[in-house]
Amino acid sequence: MGGSGWIGDAGQAKGEFLGVVGRSENTAVLRVLIVESAGRDGQRLLDAIQGGTASMEGCLAADPDMLSSRLQTERWDAFVLSCTMPELPAVEAMALFREQAPAVPVILSIERGAMDFPFELLENGACDFVFKSNPSRLPAVIERECAKSSLLRTGREDVAGTIDALPLGEGIARFQQLSSNLPECYWLANAETQAITFISAGYEHIWGRHVDALYADHRDWLTYVHDEDRERVADAMNVHRQGGLDIRFRVLRPGDGLRWLHARNFPVPNEGGEVLSVGGVATDITGQLASKLNLSYYTHFDALTALPNQWMFYDQVQRMIALSKRSGLPLSVMVVDVDRFHEVNQALGYSAGNELLRQMAGRLSGSLRESDYLCRLEGDVFGILLPELVDSQQAGVVARRIIETLIMPVRVAGQDVFATASIGIGFYPQDGQEVHELLSNAQLAGVHAKQQGRNSYQAYSSDMQDQVRERMFFEIDLRNATLCEEFVLHFQPKVSCADGRITGVEALLRWQHPRRGIVSPDQFIPLLEETGLIVQVGRWVLEEACRHAVEWQRAGLSMPSVSVNLSARQLQSETLLADVATTLEETGLPPACLDLEITESMLMHNADTAIRTLSALKKMGVTISLDDFGTGYSSLAYLKRFPLDAVKVDRSFVQDIAADSDDASITRAVITMAHHLKLKVVAEGVETPEQLALLISHQCDVIQGYFFSRPLPADEMTGLLLADQRLPSNHLNTGSRKPMALFVAVSGFDEVISWLGREGHRVCVVPDLAGATQWLSGNLVDVLVCGAPRKGFDSAALIRLASELQPRCERILLADSRQWSRKSVAELSGSGLVHRVIHLPVEPDAFCRVVDDALNRRHISEEYSRLSHEVEVVERQLLQAEEDRRRLSDENRALQAQERQGYLILQEVLSALPIPVIGVDAGGLVALLNEAAIRRFAGRGIAPGVELAAIIPELGESRSGSHVVIDGISYDCSSQQMGASSRAEGRLFLLNETAGEA
Hints:
Layout: H1 10-13, E1 30-35, H2 40-52, E2 56-61, H3 64-73, E3 78-82, H4 90-100, E4 106-110, H5 119-123, E5 128-131, H6 138-154, H7 170-179, E6 185-190, E7 196-199, H8 202-207, H9 211-216, H10 227-239, E8 246-253, E9 257-269, E10 275-284, H11 286-292, H12 297-300, H13 310-327, E11 331-338, H14 341-348, H15 350-366, E12 373-378, E13 381-387, H16 392-406, E14 410-412, E15 415-417, E16 421-428, H17 435-451, E17 457-459, H18 462-484, E18 487-496, E19 502-513, E20 517-519, H19 521-531, H20 533-554, E21 562-565, H21 568-572, H22 576-587, E22 594-599, H23 600-605, H24 607-620, E23 623-629, H25 636-641, E24 646-649, H26 651-655, H27 661-676, E25 680-684, H28 689-697, E26 702-704, E27 712-713, H29 714-722, E28 740-744, H30 750-758, E29 762-766, H31 769-778, E30 783-786, H32 795-805, E31 810-816, H33 817-820, H34 823-831, E32 836-840, H35 844-912, E33 917-921, E34 926-929, H36 931-937, H37 948-951, E35 962-966, E36 969-978, E37 986-997
Helix pairs in contact: 3-4, 14-15, 19-20, 20-22, 30-35, 31-32
């Protein structure tokens, strides 16, 4: 029936059902019904089937009547269904297939660029799809789906083979050792609870899952058994809990699709014959079944996507390279790597990931020419062979088309997923003379595309290889550096803004490379993080920093604390708390002298875990500083929860603090906020006097930067400590500093200046803006007296400069009646930058009082700020002291509870002794009695609280090992002092009755 429509040897297959019911090995032909309108599209699909394999025949059904007739009179192996037939909607055709041939796989054929992608059909029974414009993938898809049907049929057959029980004792140990090196999956389970006690490495190979989940839940493996087999397998396992299981079933392995397994289990008795464990073995038999059915598909094609596999792709590229050598045919390859594919697996599961890869394979196929060759190399990586592609411009056109195709949403697990890809391109022969080199370089270009932000493409260049080679050698040198002790520490001092003294140092890691010299931390710290060496190196930094600090303290040098930076990996490491505790114990550094610095991003990555870790560190007594504050995305709500002691203002704000009013405002706000949270503030990167003056005027606590000292080697740091170097006193806000007034471009007030000096004020007079700038940059100024604007002197510029460099300075402007009417003076007086304008002429006495009052106000304000700051410092110290008191109180309660528990245990032990035991306190009163002592000496009135010497005087002078007679009975007396030898708390007497009476 319909013989004229068949392509190939119709006589061989006519009237024979070759689908899921069965077909003969080696000679069977797959029969495919193509539901498509007659014309170019239908013929293209028929040609693809004819050209794909000699064992496949196609027949066309172009209208509903023809489809119904062929379904009723013939049997089919696969259906190819068009999604664009107006006379036969695909939804109706799917319903017809489910009714008359529910076990036959359905493959969709769709138009490239179709506005409505058939997600619903894929979710309701369709197996896969191909594009009509490029149906080259169709034969492989049909072969795959028919192979699954054959495996399903064969899976119902009985299997032969048994497994011998393992020998006892030593045999089980040998079994475990051997099984770990075999591809099969072996396991041991508790016979009663079925909990897994051992699982071989073959589990991850066969199931594609990690063993951790299986150890946590012994039924986790059952989750990945095929839905149609799961109940049957679960029932069999319940029946054969003690052994005897012999079953075949399917699992959905991530990335590889359907796999067939053969599982058996057996009892493992102990030496007494009691079955305590059950052993088992599972074998992947997919390849055996494929070989039995002569399914070459599994050898040459990827089971999930129906694309040629890696072996086929390498073979095809090798053939094209050989052809290119003979004919000069241009050739290029692309490596397409799906971006963030693992996130789909984690969020939606492996089944959703498999569906994503399958749909992406179809879309990639539809975006290529028929002459192009697409394969799945591995995992989420696809390879494309592009003949006759000349240069990167043409390759860019193809790459952009692929990116545009893949960026459309993909429906998996009922969700729209947006997947992108990074593409690497290589050209023959310039990027590789043979297949492995060419593909390797294309893959390297894909890595660079990912590094550039993903969803892009890159063509290979020799520079990429140089970078890889340089990185490889750099990593080798870095690993050797840990063995060859090439790392050194430099120390940068932190200086108090109150008294100018060094309050501590920050330990900074440096790499002294034998050829490169000192390597910048920016170059090797990220690589240490990436390779995981940062934990080992960080432990060394911690130990060395603490050791140096102890050496300085023992030498009598002032070293209040040493700061060590923690990396993100260290903060997440389970060994961090033990490393810190061990280091403090071994070096002898007091915990309060160790400061650990962490960054905002580290805290925000896993806030709850970070809080627990930092709280545990705080209980040890160390301090915690938040580094690079202001550069991350920290929340103030979280900041309040973190057990911090200080914040470090990032150098990016300090750098322009004197020139950028926004940075100055941010810094001032950070300092104010930190002080309200009872935190100390450290400013990094202080390099100029202007920055220092502004920070001190904003009540910053500590500064760190090149203005005071660059990072120094340990010996130079020792010299700095010996010299007791400090910040210049003229920069500091100290209680003994006299207020200072700066007169700029002011003349005719010598009497006023002299009077101010006699009153104890400091006065400086400079003639112009340049002199004022130099003075403002290097000294604290309390009152600025600025002359009126005139030719050659810009008073407005001076006022603005003073407000930026020293915002707390009180600014006074002089102007006569003629100058007062000028626009510049009016603007200054209205801007708020000038605190007071004095009209000239003015009486000297009145002017003296104005400046004197301003200096006194500044002195009082400064003293108030200084005292407030000291109160805040004391409050922080009291808070720390209260935390220490609470910690010691908790430890004391724990010790008391431990002592009480110990006393109760002692009482229980003594009460069980058959010999009399009597304990007395330091005053000689009975404090402890056991039952034997009460029974033996009840007649003498023994009881807790009575004086032992009054009721049993025989024990008064006895010593350990002496012989005493009490009430006619002879005892060996063992006596032991209770409490420390230097502070006796009593004695314990043990009376052991000897044979006979005295």
